[in-house]
């Protein structure tokens, strides 16, 4: 997917049926390769989040 190279947000899922739990590991906006945070409090550190879920059949 060429579009995935242009995405500038925390998490992207392609061909995935389930969702991450709030207690999971999260990466923030434009933070790829910089690490992330666990759980609710870690997620709240990011001011802008965007999640994409794509399912192809």
Automatic annotation (TrEMBL):
It comes from the Bacteria. Signal peptide: none annotated. The keyword Transit peptide does not apply. GO terms for molecular function: oxidoreductase activity, acting on the aldehyde or oxo group of donors, NAD or NADP as acceptor. InterPro entries: Ald_DH/histidinol_DH, Ald_DH_C, Ald_DH_N, Aldehyde_DH_dom. Pfam families: Aldedh. Keywords: Oxidoreductase. Residues 1-52 form the Aldehyde dehydrogenase domain. The keyword Chloroplast does not apply. SUPFAM superfamilies: ALDH-like. This is Aldehyde dehydrogenase family protein.
């Amino acid at each position: 997917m060429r579009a995935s190279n242009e995405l500038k947000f925390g998490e992207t899922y392609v061909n995935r049926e389930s969702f991450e739990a709030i207690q999971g590991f999260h990466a923030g906006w434009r933070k790829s390769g910089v690490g992330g945070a666990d759980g609710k409090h870690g997620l709240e550190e990011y001011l802008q989040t965007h999640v994409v879920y794509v399912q192809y059949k």
